[in-house]
């Protein structure tokens, strides 16, 4: 392989590994996320250590640590919402304990627990990646976890889930743009106004997402908000929109007019 080809191959590999878009969050946002994760996991570790030995507590908190990243760094993500966090962990814990009790081979039980948990979370609309870790802990968490049986679902998993969700609500509450769940982020009248300005219908968005045939980690509300902000940043509303009239030929700067011309 020539030097140029090596350089080209290395450049290609580097481009695949490097993020396609820079993280545009402010320094304040990053530090708030870090502090929230610290407080949330500290509370979870305190509870888990009282129920399990150090090894079992460490493994359980491992899955909660992954949840903390989502709750405090991506509080408005679809995977971070209350039902995915709550349902994802508890359903996965149930699947994991069931596999541990009915399958003797721990390797097979662990793999099956994760696979079945993913399927269950998908169908129950509570996809939460850390749930896979919770299912695995139920199988491979050691003697302390095994002795708990199905009690493992309620203590420490349910306790930890409630604590970290409560921490996410409280610690994100002072910051309007981070409030969790997203329904607390802005008043209802603002959301209603945004809905009126949105230039994309709910049915169109649902159709577009169905065509991707993949899970998108962003809420429908935020997708519409991003689209609306982008459109209104480039194309200021003209009088025809403000008065509910049909665009005239003179409104050349209007987005819908440009789209109509392009389609024509």
Structure characterization notes:
This protein is mainly α and 264 residues long. The chain folds into two domains: 27-182; 188-263, no CATH class. Helices cover 71% and strands 0% of the residues. The protein has 13 helices and no strands. It has helices at residues 3-17, 27-51, 54-73, 82-102, 106-123, 130-140, 143-148, 151-172, 188-197, 202-212, 220-234, 239-242, 255-263. α4 packs antiparallel against α5 (106-123). The longest helix has 25 residues, at 27-51. It is globular and about 55 Å long. The model has no long low-confidence stretch (mean pLDDT 80).
Structural class: mainly alpha
Query: Which geometry do the CA atoms define?
Result: globular
Percent strand equals under 5%
State the assembly state of the protein chains: single chain
Rg of Cα set:
24 Å
The residue-averaged pLDDT reads 80
Tell me roughly what share of residues is in helical segments.
Answer: over 70%
Number of helices: 13
Q: Major sheet, described briefly?
A: none
- The helix/strand order is HHHHHHHHHHHHH
Query: What is the first-to-last residue Cα distance?
Result: 51 Å
The domain count comes to: 2
The residue ranges in which pLDDT falls below 50 over 5 or more consecutive positions are none
Give a count of the beta strands, DSSP E runs of length 2 or more: 0
